[in-house]
Task: structure prediction
Amino acid sequence: MLEFLRGRDVLVAGWGVSGRSLVEPLRDIGAHPVVTDAGAAALAEAAGLGLEVATSVELETADLSRYALVITSPGWRPDSPVLVNAVTAGIPVWGDVEFAWWVDQARLYGPVRKWLVITGTNGKTTTTNMTHAILRAAGIPSVACGNIGLPILDALRRNPGPQVLAVELSSFQLHWAPSVRPEAGVVLNVAEDHLDWHGGLDAYAAAKARALVGRVGVVGLDDPVAASLARRSKARRTVGFRIGVPADGELGVVDGKLLDRAFTKAAILAEVGDISPPGPSGVADALAAAALTRSIDVAPQFVREGLVEHRVGPHRAAFVRELAGVEFVDDSKATNPHAARSSILAHPSVVWVAGGQLKGAAVEDLVEEVAERLVGAVLIGVDAPIIAAALARHAPEVPVVEVQARDDATMKADAVMAEAVRLAAGLADSGDAVLLAPAAASLDMFADYTHRGRSFAEAVNALQESDIGRRA
Result:
């Protein structure tokens, strides 16, 4: 399968986490990795490790015939000049996930693993962690990997190795991994996100649908786009889940209990009250994790044990503090309108802290749907004016404040967040939730969504009771 790489040069495009994970497997195969990146610091680091490097600029027009393969980091778009040059020259371009799949199929690091693939616009990480928790409860050697942080290749190289991989995959990773055939794969939901990368919702959904090509495909039936993918599924069997009474062939909820009617006649899996995070999105993620693990014959009692054990990670609807009857909640991971919608709908009365990079996503429908729950909004980031305009159209009675960054050091990211939290607290009253659910990416101001969430929590913990009090 990979013999064609032995003794050949392989171009590693992008020196990030996934790029670093490629080096040792390529060497183990007998290939010679060459690293390219747009950043001088990245190339210097790779060169410092004894790797041959080349700038991406010089490779845009260079003769690439020396390379047997280009392995790209998932963030590189198909129209990146280096990749276009490679395709034009007839050189195959794989993603790191595609390469990991073939490494596993070649048994380079032991027996072939079962892949359980999780994708969707929102809930991927929570579902992946839930899946891993269930596998642990069942005593199955497993690991959570992929977009969740641990590269798949690093997971494969573990000793002793896992038998099952709970693999979180983004749309970028799926785009570059056409050969992956998981034991089971789930599409949780599909909403506007990364449209600037894919060029439109149809292409984005098509990338997500690549999870539905293995033995079992699972789709979220409460999401219209995900549900529609059932018709396009190439899996040998496709099942669905819903937050409601399940039909035959589905998982769902009956009388506060998660019920499996897909892999058995009827089996109770867990209580809704056992699920973390609470609320509809958490229950949906739990049903998806249950479907994946039930598809490989994990018994219902282990599904329950795993879901009871699982607790939501940081920055995912995480409770920060209660002050004077006001709850402060950090959902910095809500990086698109679809995720923010689920977060807001979990609370009856919200002061919304939002803003950042919308990445081409529309907020009109979101604002119109949640308007009645909003008692105030504080907006930050580059696309704050777009959200403010939507609020003015659909929630004109809601007080809205924009906090703008300035060039001087006193009003950069953390200071902007501190001011936003102070203003949000002033708009809140007992019974409200001050909710960071940005509906947007963070990189216009913060290092990443975790930095944004930490900044929010630090600002919340600095508040005094005197800061609370809704303003007219």
User: Anything to note?
Assistant: The chain has a mean pLDDT of 92. The longest strand covers residues 32-37.
